[in-house]
Specification:
disordered N terminus
């Protein structure tokens, strides 16, 4: 039973008391990962819509949408408009593997030759625009985005970044207009992430002036080679270069090199002699990529030097076990958060930092996306399982992202190793790389203890630590992006999401924080309460946040996502 004092409390007093409690809870929280030299970013309380006389937050949709869509929206709209004008190129919900392969090729050729959108020239010149095109293409069909990535990023990128001017002059136009569809033949049946363990050989024959590309055993078969099953005409083949010597061994293993190898006739499109291409069998996931095995001969393929191009050495010494030293564009974030590229050689510290950041982001984001897709599908009930609403397609198409271009587990191990290296160097008096500056102060206590690397960090904790590192990078970039936003209303809207992301990530690992006494019990409760409060706030603007991406119905192509006539679209599809 309520006390007389409670029963006589005016509604205004209750509202004021609730606001005061929330304000006190917020005082338990320290600033969320402030930027170097910046203590202006703190958690702030936004008036609860339920207690506000004004009501829910008014969102400036025009400003929010412009900010969310980014500076390359024009070329993305060209992609959307093209496929909207060509309904025969839109991927149906139900399609066979063979038909999907052919459709994706028609889509790519149409995009390049009819729509005049040529992504290849932006790979090095303007990576931001290239990935904006990739994002738009992926909205049309994820498999098309993968085919585009194989053609321009992997096959084309290997020619641009591993080849010389001779190779670029010969192949650029053919790659650009898709006259030269190609593959990136690195992975082998026995060796995926271990490039130095590749077994395919490229032996130079002095007498015939030829390279002999050979698959010595089944373990060396080039496996999961995208674009090779039907359309590929060339392949960048990674193989150990074997050269003749005058010593007792007669040959020397010079390590892994890259070779451009023709695999199909340019006119007849027939597989060239010595090349065998087979499907790997029924796939579990993607219907376009990674269905084939392509290897260079059962025995020996001999091609004249005019056909097989030796394009680069992937080793910094003649030792086959030497570390890889590939001259590739370096992409990293400046303090303003903008991506830029630099083709100049960089020191080992910067290259290592970029590798750790890209590996960690790839592993974290693909895993996070897979979980998000599953959560969204379940939240939609039975409609989430209907093929027409595309959750199943998106989930299946995306699932492979956790494995290809670097297995997530392997990538996380690489980040963990680099994190320990950075920590140890700081402990020994060294400097921290660019993206690790936030650790500078937080490590001081640990550094005062004897050998913190072995005394405090155990292998079971490393994965959680490196995930937290990636989350801190994402959060720092999120904060910087909000601070750059010129519209105050959009800043306030996005700050709700940013604050919720920070607290949700902390709450997700609250057990770890509590076990090491990093978060006191009262602070843990405050985090939980404020997380729930922010969930309420974000829910009120969730529709506006989704609509700000401004994806037209002909791109989403899911009745459940349509603003109007959703049920009529639904029933029409199933034949009512």
């Amino acid at each position: 039973m309520a006390s007389p004092r409670e029963s006589n409390r005016a509604p205004e007093d209750e509202s004021h008391a609730a606001s005061r409690r929330i304000e006190r809870l917020s005082l338990h929280l320290t600033p969320m990962i402030p930027l170097p030299g910046d203590d202006s970013y703190r958690m702030e309380i936004v008036t609860c819509a339920g207690n506000s006389k004004v009501g829910r937050m008014d969102v400036d949709m025009e400003s929010l949408s412009v900010f969310m869509r980014g500076k390359h929206r024009e070329i993305q709209e060209r992609v959307f408009d093209y496929f909207n004008s060509r309904p025969e190129l839109q991927t149906p919900v139900e399609i066979s593997m063979n038909d999907h392969r052919e459709l994706c090729m028609k889509q790519l050729i149409g995009l390049v030759r009819e729509a005049g959108i040529k992504p290849f020239r932006f790979v090095n010149e303007d990576p931001g625009k290239y990935f904006a095109i990739m994002e738009a293409v992926g909205s049309v069909d994820v498999s098309l985005a993968i085919k585009m990535g194989v053609q321009f990023s992997l096959w084309g990128g290997s020619v641009l970044n591993l080849g010389t001017k001779k190779h670029r002059d010969k192949f650029f136009d053919g790659i650009d207009n898709v006259d030269y569809p190609g593959c990136f033949a690195m992975t082998e049946l026995h060796h995926g992430s271990n490039v130095q363990g590749l077994q395919t050989t490229a032996t130079f024959d002095l007498i015939t002036d030829e390279f002999i590309i050979n698959t010595p055993n089944d373990g060396a078969i080039k496996w999961w080679i995208g674009n090779a099953a039907v359309h590929g005409k060339f392949a960048t083949v990674f193989a150990k270069l074997v050269l003749p010597t005058h010593g007792s061994k007669k040959t020397a293993d010079m390590g892994v090199h890259a070779f451009i190898v023709p695999i199909r006739d340019l006119k007849t499109h027939k597989t060239l002699p010595g090349i065998e291409i087979h499907d790997c069998g029924t796939r579990l996931l993607l219907q376009l990529q990674f269905d084939i095995r392509c290897y260079v001969s059962n025995s020996v393929l001999q091609s004249r030097l005019k056909s097989v191009f030796w394009i680069t050495n992937l080793n910094n010494t003649a030792n086959a076990n030497a570390g890889i030293n590939i001259r590739l564009p370096i992409c990293y974030y400046t303090t303003s958060g903008e991506v830029y590229t630099d083709e100049e050689d960089h020191d080992e510290e910067l290259v290592g930092d970029v590798h750790a950041l890209s590996a960690g982001l790839k592993a974290y984001i693909t895993s996070y996306t897979a979980k998000s897709l599953s959560t969204c599908r379940e939240a939609c009930g039975g409609h989430g399982y209907a093929a027409v609403n595309r959750f199943g397609t998106l989930r299946n198409d995306h699932d492979i992202f956790q494995t290809f271009e670097g297995d997530n587990t392997v990538l996380l191990q690489q980040v963990a190793a680099y994190l320990l290296k950075q920590y140890k160097e700081k402990f020994q008096g060294g400097t921290l790389a660019l993206t690790w500056n936030y650790l500078r102060e937080s490590m001081n206590t640990y550094l005062s203890q004897p050998n913190p690397v072995t005394a405090r960090w155990e292998s079971a904790d490393i994965c959680e630590i490196l995930k937290s590192h990636i989350e801190s990078v994402i959060l720092a970039q999120f904060i910087e992006a909000i601070q750059r936003c010129p519209n105050a209303n959009t800043q306030a809207t996005l700050k709700l999401v940013c604050d919720l992301y920070a607290l949700d990530r902390i709450w997700n690992d609250i057990g770890t924080y509590r076990n090491v006494d990093y978060v006191a019990p009262n602070k843990a409760k405050a985090i939980h309460k404020l997380t729930e409060y922010l969930c309420f706030q974000v829910r009120n603007v969730a529709q506006e946040l989704v609509d700000a991406f401004d994806l037209p119905d002909h791109v989403t192509r899911a009745p459940i996502a349509m603003q109007s006539n959703a049920y009529s679209q639904y029933t029409q599809y199933v034949g009512f």
